[in-house]
Design a protein that fits this description.
By secondary structure, the protein is mainly beta. It contains three helices and twelve strands, in the order ββββαββββαββββα. It has one domain: Sandwich (Lipoxygenase-1), CATH 2.60.60. A six-stranded mixed sheet has the order 1-10-9-3-7-6, with no helix packed on it. A six-stranded antiparallel sheet has the order 2-12-11-8-4-5. A hairpin with a 4-residue loop joins strand 9 and strand 10. It is globular, with a radius of gyration of 16 Å. The termini are far apart.
């Protein structure tokens, strides 16, 4: 049975005896209804994972080692694989999916931070106030059962990105934290990444 999380709520993913290994992290969103006269472009949201060490900083200076996104779909360890870019967010269910094999995550990675940003938001004059029904969910890859879901229901007018959630190590176990922190300037993913340098 899936758990519906609230902002700031945490859950254990690898309690002894549960044996959870592979998780699918699904992120979804819909474009809010536009007025009949609106001519704005389609909103292109991108899901990414920023990889941090114990100190809360990027695990490497090399982008391919600290970031999994549409331009680097697979981490060198094979533990984190992005399933590809969805340019429109159309349709039901997950818009972008990221697979995480927890036992394969290198020991120097303590946190996997999941973010969503609107590509080129500033130039397109787009923000998360134009997005609705945003969510993140975790699915057990062995059973295909949803473990938990976090619906981002706050108003995010003027914000170009969201730090959605994180999977992190604590006491030898993996945990999940629902964050939901808006980021004002995030049309370029590097704006979010720079917070962790």
């Amino acid at each position: 049975m899936s758990i519906n999380l609230q902002k700031g709520q945490k859950i254990d993913l690898t309690k002894p005896g549960q044996g959870l290994k592979g998780v699918m992290v699904g992120l979804g969103w819909d474009e809010a209804k536009r007025s009949f006269f609106s001519r704005s472009q389609t909103i292109d949201c991108d899901a990414s994972v920023i990889l941090l060490g114990e100190d809360g900083k990027l695990v490497s200076r090399r982008e391919k080692e600290y970031l999994v996104y549409f331009g680097n779909l697979r981490h060198s360890s094979g533990a984190i694989i992005h399933q590809g870019d969805n340019l429109t967010g159309e349709g039901d269910g997950d818009d972008e999916e990221i697979m995480v094999n927890l036992p394969l995550v290198p020991q120097n990675i303590a946190r996997l931070v999941f973010v969503v940003n609107i590509y080129d938001a500033g130039n397109k004059k787009q923000h998360f106030g134009m997005i609705q029904n945003a969510f993140i969910r975790l699915v057990n890859m062995d059973t295909m059962q949803e473990i938990c879901r976090y619906d981002l229901s706050e108003k995010y007018d003027g914000m170009e990105g969201l730090i959605v959630a994180e999977i992190y190590r604590y006491g030898g176990e993996w945990k999940f934290n629902a964050i939901g922190q808006p980021v004002q300037r995030a049309g370029n993913l590097d704006y979010i990444v720079s917070n962790y340098r």
